[in-house]
Amino acid sequence: MSMYKAWTLIALAGMSALPAMAQKATLEGTWKLNLTKSFMGPDHPSSDYQLTKKIARTDEKISITDIAMHVSMMNIPLPDSTTTMEVAADGQEHDVQVPGGFPGVPPTTAKVAANWQGCTLEIAQRGSGFAGSGKQRLFLSEDGSQLIILVEQHSTYFDSEQRLVFDKQT
Question: In terms of residue numbers, what domain contains 118?
Answer without folding.
Answer: 26-168
